[in-house]
Amino acid sequence: MLEIVDLTVKFGDYVALDQINLELRQGETLAVLGPSGSGKSTLLRAIAGLEIPDGGEIRWEGAVLGTRAPHTRGFGLVFQDYALFPHLDIGANVRFGLEIAGLEEEIANRRVAEVLEMVGLSGFHDRSTETLSGGERQRVALARALAPNPRLLMFDEPVAALDQHLRARLLAELADILHDLSTPAIYVTHDQTEAFALADRVAVLSEGRLLQVGEPERVWRNPASIEVATFLGLENIAEVRVQDNVISTPWGAVKGTMAPGTHRIAIPAASVQLDPNGPISAVVVRSIFVDGRYRVELQALNRTLVTEVAGPRPLEGSKVSVTIETEAMVVIPS
Amino acid sequence: MDRSHDRVMKAQRSTQRWLFALPIAFLTTFFVYPIVRIMAVSFSGDAGIVDSFSTVIRTASLRGTTWFTLWQALASTVLTLIFAFPAAALVGRYQFRGRRLFMASLTVPFVMPTVVVGAAFLALLGPDGPLGVDLRRSVTAILIAHVFFNYAVVVRTVGGNWANLDRTTEEAARVLGAGQWQAFRRITLPQLMPSIRAAASIVFLFTFTSFGVVLLLGGFGINTIEVVIFREATVNLDLAVAGALALIQMVGVAGAVYAYGRSGRQATERSVSASGVVLRPIRGFPARFLQLAALGISALLLAVPLGGLVVRSLTVGGGLGSANFSSLFSPDRTAVVTAPWQAIFNSIQIALGATVISVVIGTLLALAIAQRPTRLSSTMDALVMLPLGTSAVTVGFGFLVAFDWPIDLRTSPILVPIAHALIAVPFVVRTTLPVLRAVRARLREAATVLGASPRRVLALIDLPIVSRAALVGAGFAFAISMGEFGATAFLVRPDRPTLTTAIFRLLSKPGDATFGQAIAMSVILMVVTASLVAAIDRFRVGNLGEF
User: Fold this and answer.
1) Domain locations in chain A?
2) If contacts are CB pairs under 8 Å, which of residues 380-439 in chain B contact chain A?
3) Is the ipTM of this complex over 0.90?
């Protein structure tokens, strides 16, 4: 559906997007994941036609979009700060795209009611945008983008400004809506949980370059570089040497199968376990209670090893033994 | 806990009252009282109130004056909005080389003394002017001068609002299918309306009470109410009719001030952009065309008259020379009673006095209003704008009828700086108050939490912050006083003319030599004013302040 070939966008000398290649399939939700300043928003703006590319092409169903004006593209974009029209009430905000398209008033009104119901705001029609909470604003922005049945939906960090509880609920609802619509969607975020919760595929962007594209689990299990691994929040990154089914880590040697030689690996914290019979001995440096579990920082052979345990709380300074689930180790190509 | 909170509230309230005391006394004595006296004068004319008002209504020429005042003000407002819109769009949307300089130079005409502008247009539109047509004594000349004066008001107010708009709303409209023009008309323009209304009411206000320009460029039969008040009070000595006209004019002024207050507040409340001010570089044909149009109109409208004034001042009998300037300082001057350099000295003296008074009063008012919002502070916020709207001639006229008793102050030299200060106070308040409001709430709270009492907060937080803004206000006050004409014309003693009254006197005398001298003095006044504006711009705190 959407093809991006060698897309480059510059602001003066600053290269915001550097030869991006990306493809979006029918009904697919793609999450673009990257730290702030990585060029995520610029990518969306370029697709929407709000930025003019300095190189490369954006194609929709084979046709080059080029410098086609934004209003002729038929795409929907939900802005980070919602960009609700302050001088229009909620109904008029949602109706805007329909009016521009020249829809009959009756049909437009029916559609407005429909999308407002879809986002859980039935009856908000006549209210002013200033009376809304952050979550409600976000819903209006979504309804406004959905109303004209766009060919492509784009989201620019739409829940970043909301509190955590609300964020989770909106994400779940958004996932349902996207699933029902089968409209292709691009969702830009710096939060990997958001990206993994919504996306069929994830694209990792950093400093204007695309580092990796793939299904969430595949990207997580096979990060293309240490940059990707670090950004995904993979922990316990180290060099290991493998010989005769013994993996020598900086924390100590463990048994396990892996191709012989030297590798760079990461070990998810959940795959490091306290075990009285474990081969690695370590000292507890710090225990922090997070999300119902203890996140524990250990010191083994003068290197930090992070683990998660359900409890009881490992006391700081106590000596423990540890095993590592070697099959959970993630190999990072160097 | 509750009681100590109560104590803090009480302390804050008493701080506020204490700050208001002096300004309220000043405004009551020099603003409210003279207006009351004007009312008394017009109500107690020879045949009482009915007579002076019915004279106005029955006299065809006075009806004509009222009608002309109204329609020329409306026409001036509409013309200014149209001509200034491209420049407002340019500074509201785009970043370009020389943007700061452009903004600063736009302010110059706004603070240009009316007599200077009058002189400039007389030189430009006279029979010897470069245009070759004699437009003096015409409505066209008045309208052009009014657009010249108020151009910056529209560019600053509308352009400032535009720059603060949330740009993504326009982009959202584009993505939703609206073309460039549609997005502008349906999304941007409605959001700009409050500032357009605010600018329109200010321009209406200034042109409705236009005095110097009309006096110099209008000529016989083309009078505003303001000019007639002056003539009735000083030439015909019919104080009752002058008072009635002043009251009629005040009604129009009050309407415009009210409209400004409402729209101004909407404009500042709405203009909250999440992403801050985002200006784009100029790229593509429409943007370039806009830049060309805006700079072209600005140059034609602003640079030509002022440049023409400078050229004319250096023209002596067909050639170039500095005779016009040197004659100001030569002993064998022809026309004026006092030496021209004496007028410059008088003006500076008066301006210094006016600056001190208006900065003290204005800063106290701003500090008091910016304390916690009470009914008193919001009332004062609105009332402070009234002297701005009340015409200079009304102020001068009011002083003339008010301060004859118990001691006759009318010939005392202190009335002139006080009148100027009264006119400048709103400017001081409007430059300092937004700065205080923008930074204060958080800082005040932080200082209070750290244990500072309301009075110490005032001394340690507000005063240091306000002092920079007050400097900007001081510059405005000085410039306003230097160029003030309407009130000065009433109050100044003939043997102590100011720059503006001297220029006016020279302009109304026939002869090429006196005209040359008037033009030379105008250039001096223009240079002083322009340098002040340049200095003000350096001290401006960000883009805060309304002028």
Assistant:
1) 2-231, 238-332
2) none
3) no
